[in-house]
Design brief:
DegV_C, 41% helix, six-stranded mixed β-sheet, 13 strands
Length: 281
């Protein structure tokens, strides 16, 4: 039986992405609750409708992680399973997957299941899945060796993101209303990164989109000094044009060739908000 890679919907890969590689791939959806409306973060979700609903709703919206049974249903389909979950530092999704793995292994102890807490989201999860795909296709390592290599690769990844619409941060209490108004009027755009513990910290505050994209591109400079080439993944919320500008800056400044751009799914759109950009390398 083919191996299965399982992720949650904070990973912005299309559900059919690995079909051509002969690897089963499942995306377990989270939910976003905006007032009385519950959005299921699957292929049917229109992120523009979600963003508009969030803008119109004056109170804080919320998200809900998948249940253990949601993950267990996918784990039962294959004998060899790799689970890539969003950071446990900001969501209960990883713990839900862990409970599911215990349930399924109790039913059938012969199954191979390995869970990975990405300590990130979106683009870092995509890079992990791409690396996992390449190792599986090469066919030179067994299950345990692949898991060990992927764990090492995860430690080398960096995730940064740029926020342009701060309204959701204000509504959820992560930023004061006064600070949000001031930042918006001055075109201040925070660039943040995922820490080693899977939390979020702001690393730079820029004014204007040109400076912001330039600063974001420069964040790969340290890695570019020691690596000739490496893959970069960019995800965007309704913002392909700026994602392409960021890609062009990376190509021009660092001669990077392997750069991928994906639109965000619902969960990452919920957090990054309209025009948000996430990048991992």
């Amino acid at each position: 039986m083919k191996p299965r890679i399982i992720s949650d919907s904070s990973c912005d890969l299309p559900a059919n992405y690995l079909e051509k590689d002969g690897i089963d791939f499942s995306v377990v959806p989270l939910k976003i609750i905006v007032g009385d409306h519950e959005f299921i973060d699957d292929e049917t979700l229109n992120t523009k409708v979600l963003i508009n609903a969030m803008k119109e709703y004056k109170e804080a919206s919320s998200s809900a992680c998948p249940s253990p049974e949601d993950f267990a249903a996918e784990l039962r389909k294959n004998d060899e399973n790799y689970v890539i979950a969003m950071t446990s530092g900001l969501s209960g999704t990883y713990n839900s997957a862990r409970v599911a793995a215990d349930m399924v292994l109790e039913e059938d102890s012969s199954k191979k299941i390995r869970l990975f807490d990405s300590l990130a989201t979106s683009t870092s999860m995509i890079l992990m899945i791409m690396k996992l795909r390449d190792m599986i296709k090469a066919g030179t390592m067994d299950f345990e060796a692949i898991c060990d290599k992927l764990s090492e690769y995860q430690k080398s990844l960096t995730l940064v993101f740029l926020l342009q619409d701060l309204s959701n941060l204000v509504k959820t209490g992560r930023m004061s209303k006064v600070a949000g108004v001031v930042a918006s009027k001055l075109s201040i755009m925070p660039i943040a990164r995922a820490t080693d513990q899977g939390k979020i910290e702001i690393v730079e505050k820029t004014r204007g989109i040109k400076k912001a994209l330039s600063a974001m591109a420069n964040m790969v400079s340290e890695k570019a000094m020691t690596h000739h080439d490496f893959p970069v993944v960019i995800s965007h919320c309704n913002n392909l044009s700026q994602a392409e500008i960021l890609r062009d800056l990376l190509e021009k400044r660092f001669n990077l060739k392997e750069i991928y751009i994906f639109p965000m799914h619902g969960l990452t759109s919920y957090y990054a908000n309209d025009k948000g950009l996430i990048m991992s390398f």
